[in-house]
Amino acid sequence: MLLEDRYCQIALGFPGAEQSSHFDVTDFRVRGKIFATLRPKDNRAVIKLAPDEQRLLLETSAGQFEPIPGSWGQKGWTRVWLEKADEETVRHAMTMSWRSVAPKALR
């Protein structure tokens, strides 16, 4: 199980990461681009992956992740089940997510 506070710490540990929000969702951005979100009221987190990274993660970490329904999920947006997730796997997935939006100078 990964606690919400720890999820936030992981996200903010990446170079250039900032915490912001939109609607009722906390988000984590690099230079204005979102790479992860957290909705504390229902313990829901989301990360942005490339579709091929998403497929690999779903194959290797069953039960910890699932695609967001609809076209967002087809584009790689992936739900993180915090109550089932382990920190190492989430950190790895979030690294891929951060790298997908971070400028080369920060990578």
Could you give a quick summary of the protein structure above?
By secondary structure, this protein is α+β, with helices and mostly antiparallel strands. Helices cover 36% and strands 30% of the residues.
Structure description:
- The chain has a single domain (4-101), classed as Aspartate Aminotransferase, domain 1.
- 36% of the residues lie in helices and 30% in strands.
- It is built from four helices and six strands, in the order H-E-E-E-E-H-E-H-E-H.
- Strands 1-2-3-4-6-5 form a six-stranded antiparallel beta sheet.
- Helix 1 (4-12) packs parallel to helix 4 (87-101).
- It is globular and about 30 Å long.
- The relative contact order is 0.22.
- The mean pLDDT is 95.
Features:
4 helices; globular; 30% strand; 107 residues; 6 strands; alpha+beta; single chain; Aspartate Aminotransferase, domain 1; six-stranded antiparallel β-sheet
